[in-house]
Design goal:
Distance between the termini: 47 Å
Shape: globular
Length: about 725
């Protein structure tokens, strides 16, 4: 028996080492994803203002990466220094060192990209300026504005024995300078007020503006009047944001909302993981900041790009229409789904399943369904899981109206949706006030599923309409993210949904379902079993999956097993991908691609087999260990033949994208596909198809596309 366990241990160690042959580090893979975002900012076929938005997206992505991923590694390095990443064999400290090494050139690449776009925007009258670039009349305007509107609300501080170094708020900007009074030297710090605009727009017809931190920096002599000011700079700290309510003691009597408020407050005071500076620091100042923030020089990054770029997204609204056409994407509004008929949604769904494809098609049919259910006398209950909502949400208003109309409304809202905690707390209070039953899920598992169940009576019989999606019920992101939303009256799926919500209400994760597959209990196991079915077919097997991220080692090992069995596998992975294709003997039959374009790719689709035997699921889960083992996720089979054809078409177009697609190479780098006719930008194709469907126009048959798409599933 001892020998048996020893041999099993040796086999397990061997498998652990073997997986290192075809995997890569999660964090470094994510940085490659963000590099693909930056490549869109450099793409000359993308309109200039859209390119600037990609710089802003790259920047906000990097901010969150440092707060969460670097923050997590920072904690690990201090608490479990010997722990090793199973996909790369690196310790936390080794990962951090590599991250800092990789990020430094990305800063330079971003600086160069930003400067190039900024220069090209100047002839259009869109000018981000330094104070010295202003015209004389503009300088007078800025000085007057500063004296009247900014100076009175500033809170400057010196740092000396009587004035300790202040707490710097995460991702807020502070203007700093060396101050001298007679023979005494000290530092001066001025927070850029959060309640004034980040940018000051100058009078005139052009879009000429100057950042507020530059305005304050220019007039520091007015802020610190009796001091000699030198070495003016502005800085921004990024703090560890990887804090969860599990870090706090939770008493049974505690209100979970209060606990989340404490968690949000705690995040503001976490360790500094990065310092950004606008100007080069002297050795003395660098040492000073390293001591104050307990960081190393490798954690200090100089940036020539504004530390806050959110103003870029509102700038296009200030542009005159002709200029907007030159600098931004042509306006596209989500279309009314051509398959939705006039009249009531409940009646239509009873006859035929419906699949909505955001943002090409509008979310309105689903919202119309909930609104209709809120007043329909036959509707008894509405139940829904919510992860992220927009700041303004018609969905909440309809749910509240339903409760006020006497329907039983149950809302399972996840208060731990990172960085949306406060928004969800606010909405939970609004829902409760209206009479909705609000649940918060499980202590150790986030509820990330996207499922809605409407129960109603029809001629004395209880019937169901179930909606299951790949994305959040967020009306804002539904116009920016690509997602699928299935609405079905299938009674067996409805019964599964009834069971699911019952289990959520009694904290039972071990539910049994006929059609739905639910993490953490059955989703991964079912996906692996479906892959085994394809493995049994050998070279006749076919697997296509689309997801946002791939890190789960059990899934990775099964993909390798399928590849070795001769199964043809295509994975469309937008972001993190810890698996490498084309590794001889391990992943020869695997192709992995990523699409980064105008919209954020977000659907999760799992397809097994071909023809009549093909099985397709859509759901909320990526193949990440956190999703498959530590979250409540739901995936649903596609049983309607027409909807199967729809999804197969989407997958085929995506796989043949040769404009926005990048293919992952065996060395971990991504390469764009060879651009040859037919040129296929999948997102452009889907926009065009949605518009034509509404207009009932015939499809434009671009030469070669049909031939190229035909037979792809038999590859």
């Amino acid at each position: 028996m001892i020998k048996y366990f020893q041999s099993m241990k040796v086999r397990h160690e061997s498998m652990k080492n073997e997986i290192l042959n075809y995997t890569q580090n999660r964090e470094l893979s994510w940085l490659k994803f963000n590099k693909r975002v930056l490549e869109e900012a450099r793409d000359i076929t993308v309109p200039l203002l859209e390119r600037m938005k990609f710089v802003a997206i790259f920047t906000s992505n990097l901010d969150e990466f440092f707060m969460i991923r670097v923050g997590s590694l920072y904690d690990m390095a201090h608490t479990d220094a010997k722990a090793v990443d199973s996909r790369s064999g690196m310790t936390a400290d080794e990962q951090l060192a590599k991250i800092y090494e990789v990020v430094a050139p990305l800063y330079k690449e971003r600086d160069k990209t930003y400067a190039d776009i900024k220069k090209q925007l100047h002839p259009y009258g869109v000018c981000g300026l330094d104070f010295k670039e202003l015209e004389q009349i503009e300088k007078k305007y800025v000085k007057k504005y500063f004296k009247e509107q900014v100076l009175p609300v500033l809170s400057p501080q010196i740092v000396d024995a009587n004035h300790p170094f202040p707490h710097l708020v995460n991702k807020e900007i502070y203007v700093t300078a060396n101050l001298k009074l007679k023979d005494k030297s000290m530092m001066g710090i001025v927070p850029v007020p959060q309640y004034i605009s980040d940018v000051l727009y100058l009078p005139g017809h052009d879009i000429r503006y100057i950042r507020m931190e530059k305005v304050i920096m220019e007039f520091l002599n007015l802020v610190f009047e009796k001091y000699t000011v030198s070495d003016a700079n502005y800085i921004c700290v990024t703090r560890n944001g990887d804090v969860s309510p599990d870090d706090e003691a939770l008493e049974v009597t505690d209100d979970f909302r209060k606990l989340m408020q404490k968690t949000i407050h705690k995040r503001r005071k976490m360790s500094v993981v990065r310092l950004e500076v606008a100007e080069k620091l002297s050795e003395e100042t660098q040492k000073y900041f390293c001591e104050k923030f307990d960081i190393r020089p490798c954690q200090i990054f100089r940036t020539k790009v504004p530390m806050k770029l959110s103003y870029i997204f509102t700038m296009s609204g200030n542009l005159p229409e002709p200029l907007k056409k030159s600098l931004a994407y042509p306006v596209f509004s989500p279309q009314n789904c051509a398959r939705v008929q006039e009249g009531g949604m409940i009646k239509q769904i009873r006859k035929k399943d419906l699949l909505l494809f955001y943002p090409y098609e509008s979310m309105n049919p689903f919202l119309k369904l909930v609104k209709e259910a809120s007043v329909d006398p036959n509707v008894m209950t509405i139940k829904i899981t919510i992860y992220r909502l927009a700041k303004k949400a018609r969905l909440v208003e309809y749910l509240c109206a339903a409760a006020e109309n006497g329907k039983e409304v149950t809302v399972l809202i996840e208060l731990r949706a990172r960085f949306d905690e406060q928004n969800n707390i606010d909405w939970s209070e609004r829902l409760e006030e209206a009479g909705c039953r609000v649940l918060y899920g499980f202590e150790d598992y986030k509820v990330h599923s996207k499922i809605c169940l409407i129960t109603y009576r029809n001629r004395g019989e209880i019937q169901y309409i179930t909606q299951i999606g790949t994305g959040n019920y967020n009306e804002k992101t539904a116009a920016m993210y690509t997602d699928l939303s299935l609405i079905t009256a299938n009674p067996e799926i409805g019964m599964d949904a009834v069971e699911f919500f019952k289990n959520m209400s009694i904290s039972n994760l071990d539910g049994m379902y006929k059609h739905l597959i639910v993490a953490p209990v059955s989703l991964k196991q079912k996906v692996l079993a479906l892959m085994d079915e394809e493995i049994a077919k050998g070279q006749d097997g076919r697997i296509i999956m689309k997801m946002n991220s791939l890190t789960d080692t059990d899934f990775i090992e099964k993909v390798s097993e399928a590849s070795r069995a001769g199964v043809k596998i295509d994975l469309i992975v937008r972001g993190i991908c810890c698996m490498l294709p084309g590794i001889p003997g391990y992943t020869d039959n695997l192709q992995i691609m990523s699409v980064v374009g105008r919209y954020l790719e977000h659907p999760r689709i799992f397809s097994f087999g071909t023809g009549n035997a093909q099985k397709i699921y859509i759901g909320s889960a990526d193949m990440m260990t956190r999703n498959t083992e530590k979250r409540v996720e739901v995936a649903c089979p596609i049983l309607d033949a027409d909807i199967k054809r729809q999804i197969n078409h989407y997958l085929k177009v995506m796989l043949n994208d040769n404009i926005k697609a990048r293919v992952l190479q065996s060395d971990g780098n991504y390469c764009k596909k060879e651009q040859k006719e037919p040129f296929i930008d999948s997102q452009e194709v889907f926009m065009d198809e949605a518009v034509r469907a509404v207009r009932k126009e015939p499809e434009v048959r671009k030469s070669g596309i049909k031939d190229k798409l035909r037979g792809l599933f038999q590859r």
